[in-house]
Amino acid sequence: MRDTHSNSLGWLLDQELGCVEGVEYAVLMSGDGLLQARTTTIGQEDAEKLAAVTASLRAAGKAWDEHVGGKGMCQLLIESQGRIGLTTAAAHNTMLSVVTTGPEADVGLISHHMVRLAARLGHEMGVSDRHPAPEGGIAT
Length: 140
Prior knowledge:
Distance between the termini: 7 Å
Largest sheet: 5 strands, antiparallel
Radius of gyration: 15 Å
């Protein structure tokens, strides 16, 4: 398991997404919502909460896709009065989530940078699947 407090890939998120106009912060998380990395513009605790909430939203999106006979969810967009959230698959069992600075942000541009980052460095961002611990053992 990675030590998310070390934020070892945070520099990569800062470099690739932190300079994109309209991006307030970004997080990289496992499919089950464990934080893997974050931009420096969001604190550890808030990043962990965002990762968990985003995983829940993605699970709902996947259920919606299955219900309507889709062929797999590609990206999730949630729009509120003050922000837009974008989530996309980044690598094996990994998601990348961005929160915008406001509703006027260019989601096309931001999405392009997210997909480009995922394609360019997906192998570095992959997370192994977690497995339940055997009785009395340690989960992997």
